[in-house]
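As described in the Methods, two query proteins were run sequentially through the folding procedure within a single session, without resetting any intermediate state between them. The first query and its resulting structure tokens are shown here.
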Amino acid sequence: MTVLVGYASQHGSTREIAQRIAARLRERGHTVDVRSLGEAPALGGYEAAVLGSAVHSGSWLPDASDYVRAATAPDGRMPVWAFSVGLARVVGGWFEKYAQESEEVARLRETTDLREHRLLKGALSPEHLPLFGRAAYRIMGEVRRLP
């Protein structure tokens, strides 16, 4: 089976996850093409797709959102698996549920044969945050260290 593993990543962790998924698929005998969704790879020629994006403010990155809207059509159903990468999985609760049901995942449910969606833990480096975010990050770290 020929599989597209497409990703949208801002700082690289989603790309790394896509590469790990591709490696596992190759171990199982599949032909895999790992591509940035910003390159808008055509779905023609693939028998299945695994699509993923970093999640910011409850939504996939624009490259992934644009790709889902443009490349998925009800008449061209194919098996699709999806993954979202973000801090919601780390924080849990309402944040995790909110990320599970993003607009993009709902669109995939409507326009493809979405087999499964997984929310994965993202990586956070303080240097990726604005000044206020860095302060909050530091405070949260201090709170977690309290007995």
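Immediately afterward, the second query was submitted; its sequence and tokens are:
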Amino acid sequence: MIRFLIAIIVLQWCFCLFLLQSNEGNNTERSRPAWNGVAALLFLRRPKWYYKRYNVLVDNALANIPLDWGLQIFYEREFLSEVLQFHRGLERRLQQHPRVVLTELPPSLSHLKPNRVWKDSWVWKNAVADRVLTINGDGVLCSNSQKTWSDLEGIDYIGIPWNHGEGGDGSTHSLQNRTVVLTAMNSPYWHQLGERRFDTRLVQMIRRLNEEGSQYRLATTEETEWFGPAKHQLMAENGTLIRNTGFGPLVVTGTLFDWSYEARNWVIGTCPELKAIFPSLHDPACFGARPDPSHCAASLGLPPCQESITTTI
């Protein structure tokens, strides 16, 4: 009888050990809590130089999204075999971090450009939370932001500021309600909008659905400027720097090529993470105790600059 009980205990211990080992290192199968939000990244096959920023994007997202949010990575199958073998640190992060969710894209969505992928309802149906922050490799989340993600509660769509103000541009980063996205995609009007960009179609659909009685909320112009910087926050019409001590967006994207040197310097001083994904901004002429405007402008592919520099990074 004692031998029988010992055998049962040993079998139970072996079974638990098997379950533990099968869960380790496999983020696609591990059970997860119900996330209050998710940051979503597309890992597609891109030029080799582009892969070098993936470590930064993953760590930047995990460091700045709320602790009750996950990071979901939609990837092409080839990505795992062709890329991760050369990026061991990224491989460990993706396999071991408890907030990382790996989701393989179906063959129909492989080899497409990001905007085409986001237009497909499959991605939104498979997102692990209703609040979805889409992240692009051309920008970062700013850890020195004056605002927090809780300031955007109740907004069904927000993107980077654009000329139209309300709503914002989602070609790089945007935050949206998955349920609203799927509602818009299921509307007969969605396909009538043609092959416009996903964010343009979504904003137009939300406005149309609201005309029909829905109460979805687009971000106001002011809220989009919390989300991402607008030039007028730091630049006067003549290009001179406005010293805005309240400046601090949640997201910063692009090289800010059409910003004045001083304004761009201010942005990078507030959100230095941006320099990690744009190596050209590491030119010594662009920062430090003695920046050289003309040399820095040349390194960024900009016309010669004659402005004096009073701010250092």
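The radius of gyration is 23 Å. We note this only descriptively and draw no conclusion about the first query from it.
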